[in-house]
Specification:
The chain is of the alpha/beta class and about 300 residues long. About 45% of the residues lie in helices and about 20% in strands.
């Protein structure tokens, strides 16, 4: 039996899906976050996440842990041609790393043309059309990631601290203290700057902020609607770069869209910027998209 694997390496977790040459899904496995940016050259973080995800998938499929693969494609958050840290020890005839936007697109459209707008811990829009490909956003939490969970959490927290500086009451401040279990906003800020709170944990504050916006709380609503506008703008910019005319196929991917209410706000923004856009659900998840690319790599080898 020939094996193929697709891996979705994200900032929150890593998912591997393995299948045989007949495209039968055998199992899925989970590993830790594989965010490799800023890691030392000898950091095992990236390698351990991928190895753990593949190992757990093989265990679930009742296959030997050293089973060889024909090809593996791993979509990695923030990948720009190099991995920071030790390479994973995976047995494969061919291993290819790509930006995680590519595997989300492959999963959303099953290798067809279209634009996928991703909002998880970070954000990016990636489009393919007529042989061209364009990425908009994906600049990371310091320089971009507008509309992402991290950006929503950051902007909500910023609103809270500005209110505290002005001695104004802030419902978001109360929510932040309750969510992070800390008595003061300065303690939360200090915990983030000293890495006691990592980006994933900080980004989780987006959930109560979106819930508050859905219930009509004005301070949260202002933050979340800006996020929706930003994702609409990312999508429109991607379509403009691809010079798409007529109907534009768009898919939304990422954990932030777990809120149907937030998804609807983003769809409204996309419709306003791209009246002919057709927003459809993704066909398969990013790990499944990576698997499709792995089959493609195997056919080319």
């Amino acid at each position: 039996m020939k094996l193929f694997a697709g891996i979705d390496g994200g900032q929150s977790s890593t998912v591997a899906v393995i299948a045989d040459e007949r495209k039968r899904i055998l199992a899925r496995g989970i590993g830790g976050p594989c965010d490799h940016i800023g890691q030392a050259a000898d950091s095992p973080r990236f390698a351990q996440a991928l190895e753990a995800a593949v190992r757990s998938a093989l265990l679930e499929a009742k296959l030997p842990p050293d089973s060889p693969f024909e090809s593996i494609v791993a979509g990695v958050s923030g990948y720009e041609g190099a991995i920071h840290g030790l390479p994973p020890q995976l047995r494969a005839g061919r291993i290819v790393y790509v930006h995680d936007a590519r595997i989300a697109h492959a999963g959303a459209f099953e290798l067809r043309d279209g634009i996928v707008t991703i909002a998880g811990t970070g954000s990016v829009a990636y489009g393919r059309a007529h042989g061209d490909e364009v990425m908009v956003g994906g600049w990371g939490f310091l320089f971009g990631d507008e509309g992402s969970a991290f950006a929503i959490a950051r902007d909500a927290f910023a609103s809270a601290v500005h209110a505290e500086d002005a001695a104004r009451r802030s419902e978001l401040a109360e929510k932040a203290r309750r969510h992070f279990g800390m008595p003061a906003l300065r303690a939360i800020a200090r915990a983030f700057y000293t890495d006691e709170l990592d980006r994933k944990t900080f980004a989780s504050f987006a959930r109560p902020v979106i819930a508050a916006a859905e219930s009509g709380e004005a301070e949260a609503l202002a933050v979340v609607l800006r996020a929706a506008q930003a994702l609409g703008a990312l999508t429109a910019a991607c379509a403009g770069r691809l010079a798409l005319a007529g109907t534009v196929d768009v898919a939304l991917s990422g954990g932030t869209f777990a809120s149907d209410w937030f998804r609807d706000r983003v769809v409204e923004q996309i419709a306003g910027a791209l009246p002919q856009a057709s927003v459809a659900p993704v066909r398969t998840d990013p790990a499944g998209g990576a698997l499709l690319l792995a089959y493609k790599e195997g056919a080319q080898s």
